[in-house]
Design brief:
235 residues; mainly beta; eight-stranded antiparallel β-sheet; seven-stranded antiparallel β-sheet; 15 strands
Amino acid sequence: MKKVAMVAAAAAMVLPLGLGVLAPVTTGSTTAYAATKKAAAKTTVGLVSAKTLKKTAYHVKSGKTDLFSAAFAADRASVTFTKKGTLAAKTTVYATKQIVVKTKATKKAKAKTQTCVYVKSANGKVKGYVALSALTKGAAKKATAKTYTLVKSQAVKKTAYHFKGTQPAYFTGKFAADQAKVTLSKRGVLPKAKTYYATKQITVKQNKKNVKYLYVTNGKTKGFVLASSLIAGKY
């Protein structure tokens, strides 16, 4: 009971206990602490420790991350997470608090310990807890976007591709509604040692030449990739 009281007191200094709605974030690696869409409502885990941090910039490693609310118990060392939405990539947030939580062991899984940090965006619209493993230290780099003349756009038969050597960049594509234009914004680079499947192809005017891009997917990684950087066939 003394230990519980000490942890609860530490949490009280970091956050008011019994707070109903915050906006935490997590990733697949923190499924144990977050609710799924069906069970999403609430998941309660043990609160091991809590402390304040020097304000530090972070951003999501890749893709997007689930956003959660958190409620802290006033009479025991526990915290309840509830999914509220998602945190997109390229968003810089600032961590100021940290908690360590622990799940209970079950017949199918061992107890797990997870470090989470309380983050807040510069405009204050995004705030809450995120698994530290989901973040990369430092401010997010702004996406590089360029607009090209769209020569052709077409669906293609689903085809497997892979690459060798340098990881090619992949882009999101925003098509103009009233003219033949497409804006490609860099999302990142394709992960190594994977097979990607192309379902669309666009041709754009780039440096006075017609250049082809394929729209490829593999799990959460999806976007337009320079066709010449890919090799047909599975990895």
